Amino acid sequence: MASYYYFATTLPLLRLHQKSPITVELFKAQAEKHLNSRDWKTLKSGLSGTPSKHALLTSYRSYASALNTALARKRQVRLGFAIDEDLHRQTFPKEIETVTDELLERSDPLEAEMQFITLLWKRIDRLVGMKVFEFDALLGYGLKLLLLERVNIFTQEVGQATFETLLGTLRSEIDQM
């Protein structure tokens, strides 16, 4: 496993509840300069969502997928929809069942989304562990940047604009009836 002491130490610290100090694109541009070709290809595919056999990515995506799938099933049940057969057959670890119940108990969707993102952030921390100068840490850093990009779109202005757009659409549909 390659060590990336210089590159890792030049990256700004990421904090979940603060604005991202670097963009994903800038991180990728820097990574391309500092990583060997195999690690660069893995990072690039990992941040774009394409399939990868890298252990950290596989584990992270498996966890995120289990959370999303368990949430989808619980939402279908809650809304009284027939459960899709594939969803019905899947089983999840107790931890996933517990956290998805907690997410669905939230009355504020933004709080639930932040809790979801926090769960993913902590999973990355556990997967990276103490490998702070190895490729896994850089891959985890990139995944966290993707999460921060998602968090950064949660602003009152964007929320208000989205609400007004939805409300306007709904009003025009009602007027046409």
The number of strands is: 0
Q: Kindly give the count of domains.
A: 1
Helix/strand/pairing category: mainly alpha
The Cα radius of gyration reads 19 Å
Distance between the termini: 64 Å
What is the oligomeric state here?
Answer: single chain
Low-confidence stretches are none
What fraction strand? under 5%
**Would you tell me the overall average pLDDT?**
90
Q: What global shape is seen? A: globular
Helix and strand pattern: HHHHHHHHH
Tally of separate helices: 9
The biggest beta sheet, please? none
Detail the topology: elements first, then pairings.
Elements: H1 5-10, H2 24-34, H3 37-48, H4 55-78, H5 85-89, H6 94-105, H7 109-128, H8 135-152, H9 156-176
Helix pairs in contact: 2-8, 3-8, 4-6, 4-7, 6-7, 7-8
Describe this structure in words.
This protein is mainly alpha-helical. The protein contains 9 helices and no strands. The chain has one domain (5-164). It is 73% helix and 0% strand. The termini are far apart. The mean pLDDT is 90.
Name its key features.
177 residues; 73% helix; mainly alpha
Summarize the structure.
The chain has 9 helices and no strands.
